[in-house]
Every structure is written in C-alpha cells, then in structure tokens.
Specification:
Blueprint: H1 2-19, E1 27-42, E2 45-46, E3 50-62, E4 67-78, E5 81-88, E6 95-109, E7 112-118, E8 124-140, E9 143-144, E10 153-168, E11 171-182, E12 194-208
Length: 209
C-alpha cells in the first residue's frame, strides 16, 4: 500500500513538472499590472525618479520548450522629477525648500523580446530585446508639454526576469521584474539630450490558448 501511494505521489509530481514544458506552437497570453520607477538621464546627470502604475498584456509564442518570442502592449509612466533648491535666509533660522518639476510622460511600448525559459520545469524566464515606445501624453506638473519640445517616439532596450507559479496546465501566475533603458533622445530641444530609464515589478495571469 505504501509503495503504491509513493508511486502515485511520484507520478503526480512528474505530471505537474512535465506540465511546465511547452511545445512548439504554444501561445500564452499574460495580462499584467505593476508599479514602475523612472528617471531621465540628461546632459546634467540623472533626475530624481517618479513612480506610477504600469499595466498591459504580453503574448509568448514558443519555438520550443526553452525559447519563445514575446511581444504585446505595455503602458508606463516615464519621465522624472527635477528638483530646484530655494534658499531662504531667516535671521533666526536659516532653511531651504526643494520644489519639484515632474515630467509625466505616458508611453505605450511594444516589446520585441526573445524569452529564454530555464530551470528543470521552465518556471524561470529571462527576456531581452528592443522596445519601441510611442508617447500618449506629456505634462510638466499639470501643464501640457508642447510637441516642439518632446519627441513622439523613442527606442529602448528592455530586459527582465520572471518566475511562473503554475496553477494548472492552462493557467499560472507570473511575477517578474523588467528594466527599460532608452536608446534615443526624447528631447526636441537643440543641444539637449534626455533619455528615459526605469524598472518595474509586475504580477500577471498566464493563460495558455
């Protein structure tokens, strides 16, 4: 009886493990939501970071059990916070105040990433590739930024790592960390270079079609 029970447990374990291995042609859709932190890399250095909700959906097409192509639509608040220090000298108590000017740059990105699934049951994934992004709206605090100042397109490098918790063969939960590094200048102002850079941590539902 004990041997039979042990055999069933082992078979169940390997059944769950094998369920992680995807065949060629498998497609997975992953709607996700997360939180991001972005800053701008400029000629004068790095700005302070801002934060915001990140969301979207990706799809993976598997070429084999280890490699897939990932793409989709991802929405991020990019930009950064510029600080300006105002010095106020009081006779009794000198003090200073920092004012922030925040670039609120909302983009939709279309990642084109190779995705490597590793580990014995392929629960881990490492993705990397290009990420073209399109500007949806741009504000400095609550004022619109004119299109003459900021470009509507940027190209970035995106990469990240994730771990999938499989609930069953058709459904799982993905926890991942993603990084974006801008490759192109977003500024239309002559002689000034500014690029977005940031990261996000996300959770998503993995649905196999």
């Amino acid at each position: 009886m004990k041997k039979t029970l042990l055999t069933l447990i082992v078979l169940a374990f390997f059944g769950i493990a094998n369920a992680q291995i995807k065949e060629k042609g498998t497609i997975e859709i992953t709607p996700k939501i997360g939180y991001s932190f972005f800053q701008e890399i400029t000629d004068d250095g790095k700005t302070d970071s801002n934060s915001g909700v990140a969301f979207g959906a990706t799809a993976d097409y598997y070429f084999n059990s280890r490699w897939s192509l990932r793409s989709g639509l991802l929405f991020n608040k990019m930009g950064g916070r510029y600080s300006k220090l105002i010095i106020n000298n009081n006779v009794m108590v000198p003090y200073s105040t920092t004012y922030y000017y925040e670039d609120k740059l909302n983009y939709v990105s279309i990642p084109l990433n190779a995705n490597w699934h590793f580990g014995s049951t392929r629960k881990w994934n490492l993705n990397f590739g290009a990420s073209p992004s399109f500007l949806l709206s741009a504000k400095m605090n609550d004022e619109e930024i004119p299109s003459s100042i900021i470009k509507s397109f940027q190209l970035g490098l995106s990469f990240g790592i994730g771990y999938k918790i499989e609930i069953n063969q058709k459904f799982g939960i993905l926890i991942d960390y993603q990084v974006f590094s801008g490759l192109t200048n977003i500024s239309n102002v002559a002689g000034f270079d500014s690029r977005n850079a940031g990261d996000s941590i996300n959770i998503g539902a993995v649905i196999e079609l």
